[in-house]
Every structure is written in C-alpha cells, then in structure tokens.
User: Which sequence fits this backbone?
C-alpha cells in the first residue's frame, strides 16, 4: 500500500522527466571541454583505440596510452604528439589484473583520469573509479557492439566464436548499465558514462567482413561519433544511429520474421583473424 | 535496391508471423514429454539446480547431476532416487574446462543429453552441443537473472559486486540469444533453448534479501516455473512474469523516472555470503 502511494507520487516526476527528455531532443546540449584532462585509452595501439586517442589529442588532452603491443602504442604516441598532445605510453596486457595495477601505480597523475576504459575491462575501472568518486569527476567509456544488444548471424562455421563474442558484448552493455545506475544511486553525478555500440568496424579482427543492409565502418569515423557522444555525455551511442530502428524492430517483430530479416542481413566474413595474429 | 525488394518480400511472412504469435498466445502449446530423456543439471547440489533436478526426477528422467560440492549432490541424488529416477552424480567444478570434459567423457550416455547447463557455462554447452546437433535433439537451459536485462540498485557498499554480477547475467542472456539464433540459422530446429530470468531467489547467496515491490522467490517455485517453460519450449521465462512490465517500462521511461523507480524498489540485503562460504 505504502509502495503504491509512493508510485503515485512518482507521477509528477514522470511528467517532468518526459518534458526534460523532449527538451533535450529539441535543444541538443553544448559539448563540454576536455582540454587539459588526463585521458587513458586502453587498446590504443590499434584500430578504434588508436583513432580515439587521435581525436582526444586534437582536443589538447594529456594522453595515457595502454596497449599490449609496444610497436602499436609507439606509433600511436608519435601521431598524437605531432598533434601537440602530451603523451605517456605503457605496455599493458589488460587481461592481466596485476599489470593494470602496476601501470596505474607508475603514473600518479593518472589518478586524475577523465576518460578510461576504451576496451571495457572490469579491473581498469576498479583501479580508477575510487579516485574518480573522491573527486566526483570523470567519464568512463565502455566499448561494446551492436552484437551486445542483438546477436547477429555470422558465417555458420563460426558459431562458437559468435556465441562467445555476443556474450562478451552483452556483458559490456550490462557493465555500463550497472555502473551508470550505481553512480546515480551513489549521487556521483560528476562521473559520466558512455557505451559505444557500433556494427562491424574494419579493424582487421575478422577478414573481409560484408553486410547487405549496413555499411562496414572505418575506425576514424566511429572514433569521431564516439567523441561527439562523449562531449555531450551521451549514455548509449549506436553507430550508425539507424541501429536504433533495428533494435526497436527486435522488440516488436515475432521470432520468425526476425530470423528472416537476419538471413537477409547476411553478415559474412572470410575468417576470424584476431588482433594478435595481425602483425 | 535488391535488398530493398527482398525486404518487401518479407511482408507476407511478417503477417504470417504475427498470426502465428497470436495463435500461440490464444492456444498455449501442449507440454512435451521428457520421460526417459537424459538430463544433465549443473550446480545440482544446491538451491535452484537441486530444485530443478527434483522436478525432472518427478518426470521419470535419467538424471546426471554435477556440482562442486560432493555432499550437496549426494543429498540431491538421494532425494531424486526416492522419486524413482535413475541418477548419476559427478563432482565437477564447472569453472574448470578440463573437469567438464573429463566428466563428459566418463559417461557416454550423457551424449544423448536433453537439457543442460542450468548454470550457463560456455564449456558445458561446447562439450554437448556437437552431439545434440548431430541428433538434432536437445534443450539447453541458461540461467540468468532479471539483472541480466535491467541492473538493479543494491546496497551501495556492494557496487563492485553489483557491476560484475550484472555483467555476468547480461552475458548469460547474450549467450542464450546468440545460441538460439545460431541454432536457427543452422536449421537445428530440434534443439530448443530456454533462458530463465528470475528476480532474487532465496538460495543463501546473499543474506536476508528484501525488495519492496516484488517478492523474494523460493527455489522450488522458480524450478516449477522453469519446468513449465521448458516443456512448452518457451525461450525466455521471467519469474515473476510481471517482470515483463518492468522491462517494458525500462524501454519507455526517461532516465530520471527510472532512477526514482529504482530507488523506490529498494533492493537490499545484509551481506553477500557466496555459495562456497555457505556450509
């Protein structure tokens, strides 16, 4: 009963929230400035991470680049420096918790980090979140995929790869949503969160990806969309934004129609290469 | 262009799919029989796994029970046997891939397994799916949680636990969805999939859970709902089914209203106990 009354008391807030959402739709917020912020980019030696580092470098940030591949981050660092950014690089295998903590300790300024976690590792967030919380300032970016909302049918001989890929991308979306909600519950409104969900990016992870109804994306273009979203504190970024329509269709289409649509979409690639074998 | 034409050709199928969905809503399908099927239940020594094993035992299945806790599965096996079921037990730590394969090899009949994976392990599925595919017969059950669709605010000092818990439950939903889709794409329509998403179950994993708008569930009741769903090949089972409404609200409510609703919901518990410390 008491709970029902409280639900009723939510009504004015509901109206207010809709008005606020409408206002935000009509008057897009002004991008914030990230000048002088320390930005940690994980996986910065390659593909999307590298393109994102370059975007931040253009905005006069202090960059901290992590990657498992030394050659990759050195190249990325040189490009960022040529744009006038201060850059620190560390060779870190983000799948190893100890390496993350060791790298985080090496650089005390990193504690002021603004945007982290381009590759969405639990332990990276855990290493930096407490200081962000103390300062009530920061931004955590989680990179997932369209496959984190709606698994897509790939080439059939790769079904095991598809299943574990989709699970991990769903996990990244869950990570972002739970993190966002916990920060809100804790009243840490100075720490923003963004989740990036693009379709296929041509980063060499799979060979010759092809789709019929959507383009294959280039890392530069996705990094630009990501930065635009980060700067207006957008929580969920779909690239291309028409993905929203597909995801809405997933909610309303019956199973049989969805299966046919997926078949039509016909995502294909020649082979899973993986990042490590790429060199 | 060609793709647009094919989209148009989907229209009759779309109408057909909606009619089919409507028919299924009005005429619920007849439960299938699982009598004589081999059913592997992982995590069978405790809580939901044990309650599920008992439900299958009542339906004259040949049960294979796995759990890391020997005492737990022995107790569960005794209960199942008293209901007249044939029971085989194995002490398996499902977090260890080698142990899964060793247990799977020990029992050749297990290859005919019908329902697996009460705890949604990638490697359990990988061990059994190829034979299921060969026979085009089986049913894979993935246990996730309401938190795999919408992370809930817990007690605030547990934010790290909540984030990793939600990620893993989102991952389980993604696993189920990708598996379902791959099976459909491969034409393996004899292998069914079910994902169970309950709210809090009182299994001792956390101490004294409380929620204001929903009940705390008991394992027996959830296992009954799970069996009902499995027998009519239901793909997604929410317990309680009113969760559907909450999840729909999540899609249409603006952020601020959702945050207020979550606060009202006020999930609480005294402490995370974990299964291993329970004994």
Assistant:
């Amino acid at each position: 009963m008491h709970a029902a009354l409280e639900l009723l008391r939510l009504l004015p807030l509901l109206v207010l929230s809709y008005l606020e959402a409408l206002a935000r739709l009509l008057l897009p917020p002004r991008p914030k400035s990230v000048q002088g912020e320390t930005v940690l980019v994980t996986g910065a030696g390659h593909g999307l991470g590298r393109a994102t580092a370059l975007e931040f470098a253009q905005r006069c940030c202090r960059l901290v680049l992590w990657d498992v591949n030394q050659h990759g981050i050195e190249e990325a660092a040189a490009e960022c420096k040529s744009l006038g950014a201060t850059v620190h690089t560390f060779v870190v295998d983000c799948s190893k918790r100890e390496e993350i903590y060791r790298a985080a300790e090496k650089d005390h300024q990193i504690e002021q980090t603004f945007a982290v976690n381009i590759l969405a590792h639990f332990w990276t967030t855990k290493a930096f979140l407490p200081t962000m919380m103390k300062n009530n300032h920061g931004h955590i970016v989680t990179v997932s995929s369209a496959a984190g909302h709606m698994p897509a049918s790939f080439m059939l001989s790769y079904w095991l790869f598809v299943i574990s890929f989709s699970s991990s991308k769903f996990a990244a979306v869950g990570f972002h949503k739970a993190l966002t909600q916990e920060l809100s519950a804790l009243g840490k409104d100075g720490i923003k969160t963004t989740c990036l969900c693009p379709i296929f990016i041509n980063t060499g992870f799979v060979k010759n990806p092809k789709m019929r109804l959507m383009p294959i994306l280039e890392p530069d273009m996705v990094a630009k969309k990501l930065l635009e979203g980060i700067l207006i504190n957008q929580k969920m970024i779909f690239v291309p934004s028409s993905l929203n329509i597909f995801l809405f269709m997933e909610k309303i289409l019956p199973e049989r129609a969805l299966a046919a649509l997926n078949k039509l979409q016909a995502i294909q690639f020649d082979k899973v290469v993986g990042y490590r074998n790429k060199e």
